[in-house]
Design goal:
This protein is an alpha+beta fold. The protein is about 20% helix and about 20% strand. The chain has helices at about 5-15, 30-40, 115-125; strands spanning about 45-50, 65-70, 70-80, 95, 105-110, 155, 165-170. Strands 3, 4, 5, 6 and 7 form a five-stranded antiparallel β-sheet that branches. A two-stranded antiparallel ribbon has the order 1-2. The protein is elongated and about 65 Å long.
């Protein structure tokens, strides 16, 4: 059964169910406009596009695509974590930002999707900036909702002089 028919039936089933279950309408032929609007709202992760004429198939069969709203900001590199597993050179970059008071709070870690050659280049670039003292206003949290726990004994701190542009989904309540 095509998507349009499945959605028509679903709308009927969800009528009167309250806020716990809500029907989401679809936009046809306005993907770029709808994506822009979804990202401007700031409370949506993105949109899902599906082939309207395709029957339901369990799992991803190339019939749908999730497009995420990404934010981009610049952050100060304050250190890097040691590599884990088979990843060479460094695990992730530790990031900070200067707040209105001139302090340098921790902003998180970045590093997924970096090719080995770029990891090597980053490692060579960061090594001369090494310092013993943590440059952050306060130590970073050791736990994370994303990724493995941060082991401060495996962190290599650097002078906060290099800036990177990072794409991310959202700024969490934990900062």
């Amino acid at each position: 059964m095509p998507l349009a028919e499945r959605k028509r039936r679903l709308a009927g089933l969800l009528t009167g169910t309250g806020d716990a279950l809500q029907y989401s309408d679809h936009q046809q032929g306005r993907g770029p406009e709808f994506f822009k609007l979804a990202c401007e709202r700031g409370d949506l992760e993105g949109i899902v596009s599906k082939r309207a004429d395709a029957p339901y198939v369990l799992g991803d069969r190339g019939l749908w695509q999730k497009t995420k709203c990404l934010n981009t900001d610049e952050f100060v590199v304050v250190g890097w974590s040691g590599p884990e597993g088979s990843r060479p050179y460094l695990g992730s970059l530790l990031l900070g930002y200067y707040d209105d008071a001139g302090r340098l709070p921790y902003a998180g870690r970045a590093g997924s999707g970096i090719a080995d050659a770029e990891l090597e280049r980053l490692h060579r670039r960061l090594k001369p900036f090494g310092v013993r003292k943590m440059p952050l206003a306060e130590p970073p949290p050791r736990t994370s909702h994303f990724g493995s726990p941060l082991e401060l004994s495996r962190v290599h701190w650097v002078r906060p002089e290099l800036v990177v542009a990072v794409k991310y989904l959202a700024w969490t309540d934990q900062g």
